[in-house]
Write a structure and sequence with these properties.
It is a single chain. The chain is mainly beta and 123 residues long. Helices cover 0% and strands 54% of the residues. The chain has strands spanning 3-5, 13-20, 25-30, 40-45, 50-57, 64-66, 69-74, 79-84, 93-100, 110-121. The strands form two sheets. Strands 1-5-4-9-10-2 form a six-stranded mixed sheet, with no helix packed on it. A four-stranded antiparallel sheet has the order 3-8-7-6, with no helix packed on it. The termini are far apart. 25% of the residues are buried.
């Protein structure tokens, strides 16, 4: 786990989302069928070009709640949804969602699917 460097050639689609302090936003990442069986992940891009691992979801069609983040993966529709809850201005930033094969293995790999630019404004 930890930090991953995001290759530019994996860039697929950029999404800009605006939320309000104390509110929530939903972000959907559509992924290719070739990645359907792999866990989905979310990471936050840091200033040094590394993507800081936030969390992942491995099951289909079941919400996973992790405090501020809620994750849902519908493999039939190939849509990974992330909900950011109880937003603060500190949540503003660049995030990436993607698919990962076995990241505990030296042969594991990650595919970055969507770049998410989140802006949180005052109430």
């Amino acid at each position: 786990r930890g930090f991953w460097n995001v290759p530019v050639w994996n860039y697929a689609k950029s999404v800009s989302v605006t939320g309000h302090v104390g509110g929530s936003v939903n972000i959907s990442c559509k992924y290719p069928q070739s990645q359907r069986s792999h866990p989905r992940f979310l990471c936050r891009m840091m200033g040094n070009g590394d993507c800081n691992y936030e969390t992942s979801v491995k099951e289909s069609r079941r919400w996973r709640n992790e405090g501020k983040l809620s994750l849902h993966d519908d493999r039939a529709k190939q849509i990974f949804t992330v909900s950011f809850n109880h937003l603060t201005e500190g949540d503003s930033g660049e995030y990436w969602c993607g698919a990962e094969s076995d990241w505990t293995s030296d042969h594991g790999y990650k595919v970055f699917i969507n770049q998410i630019n989140l802006t949180v404004t005052g109430e």
